[in-house]
Amino acid sequence: MPELRPTPSSTAPEVEFISAVNVRESSELHPRPGSGVDLAYLRRYARALEDGGFDYTLVAYGSQSFDPFTVAAALSQHTERIKPIIALRPNTMYPTVAAQQLATLDQLSHGRAVVHIISGGSDAEQASHGDYLTKDERYDRSEEFVEILRRAWTETAPFSHDGRYYRFDDFGPGFPTWSGTIPVSIGGSSAAAYRVGGRLGDIFGLWGEPLADTREQIDRVAEAARAAGRTDVPRIWVTFRPIVAATDALAWEKAEATLSAVEAAHASGFLPRRLRTSGRPQNAGSQRLLDIAARGDVHDRALWTRPAQVTNAAGASTALVGSYETVAAAILDYVELGASLVSVRGYDNLNDAIDYGRYVLPLVRDELAHRRATGRRGEVVAQPPLEAPKAAKADALVTA
User: Fold this and answer.
1) For the chain, where are the E strands, in sequence order?
2) Residues 199, 186: contact at Cβ < 8 Å?
3) How far apart are the C-alpha atoms of 22 and 35, rounded to whole Å?
């Protein structure tokens, strides 16, 4: 059995970028009253992502959020290239119905649909939709769910299923996707997540952790893939909340101001309930982020973990802070580890997405293209020793 490792950096792999959809002009940085969809804003936001060079955008799910299928369908009709990633919780939809809806979206978008399976990390959040399974049971259910999805998209005759969580007779066929199947993403930071994602995921999603911790998680996913008999590994997706500016000093000044505003928004009670958590989070991903934050505020080149402390690690909450060049170099560090999908979602949603597309994404892509063309690294985006930015950060805060 060949050893499963990420692509070596010397081959300069491709990288694709992910953002997140917003349906109205409100954010943690600028919370605004109201709860409706602003279609004009959604169109503008979607176009900004596509014009900025993003490849995917996550259409998130929460028990208090809008239906991701409807939002993704609308987005697909106002874009030509960007791929919507549907966040889907198996407890909210029977897998045969999900297969129909995802196939329909894939047809409407000419093959752009992706699905991200959320098994659920909070008993309370799951219970709000009538789901009372344990965490391990939820991952077992996700495993069965994904297996049914793939059969529904590929079977050429009606089929039946009698499993632990789902049972049906003579379903389909008739729900083909645009190009044969739909990529399935699975995320998490627990043993159950590694097991299911390593076995079945086309993509495995991670939150932004220090390089060494990320390397350990990538190895766990590869180990699970190998145990399942795979000869490949899921593509690795890492997520950050970058805070960028023209210089490192300006970026850290902006970061402190941003965090103060975010902290006030969380304290005000204005934000959705899912972002207003207290006590030790139940999900492994949030626990890991809080434990990492307790080890220090700044890690590696530019990873800032204090936002995780302020928000109680409610979702993806670690930032990359620095100049456009510094943040591009930090992203390249993760690409060299094996991440081929990088999610960058800001606090000032639309304006940050525009800045990333204008200043950060091109630097990363230009550096990788240069490596492929010349075999040399660091000539477009320098990657100096990782210890240096910590001192630079301290100096920046003193002089800002």
Assistant:
1) 16-20, 56-59, 83-88, 114-117, 159-162, 167-171, 184-187, 203-207, 235-240, 243-245, 298-299, 303-304, 319-323, 339-344
2) no
3) 12
What tokens does 56 get? 């995917």
Half-sphere exposure (Cβ direction) of 132: Cα atoms closer than 13 Å: 1
Residue 139 domain flag: yes
The DSSP 8-state label assigned to residue 279 in this structure reads S
C-alpha closest to that of 191 among 135, 234, 146: 135
Helix/strand/coil percentages in the chain, nearest 5: 45, 15, 40
Tokens of 307: 């936002």
CA-based nearest residue to 106, from 180, 213, 27: 180
Cβ atoms of 316 and 239 within 8 Å: the answer is yes
- Residue 116, domain member (yes or no): yes
Over residues 305-320, the pLDDT tens digits come to 999 999 998 888 999 9
Task: Give the range of the structural domain holding residue 191, as residue numbers without chain letter.
Answer: 9-399
Any domain includes 2? no
Render pLDDT for 19-47 as a digit per residue (tens, 0 to 9): 999 999 888 888 887 778 999 999 999 99
Domain at 241, CATH number: 3.20.20.30
Q: Is residue 321 part of a domain?
A: yes
Instruction: Give the span between the Cα atoms of 59 and 326, in whole angstroms.
Output: 28
d(CA 88, CA 58): 11
Number of domains in the chain: 1
Whole-angstrom distance, CA of residue 396 vs CA of residue 400: 6
Instruction: Tell me the angle at which helices 248-268 and 324-337 cross, rounded to the nearest 10 degrees.
Output: 80
The tokens describing 242, both together, are 């970058």
Q: What are phi and psi of 343, to 5 degrees?
A: -95, 125
- The pLDDT, as a whole number, for residue 133 is 74
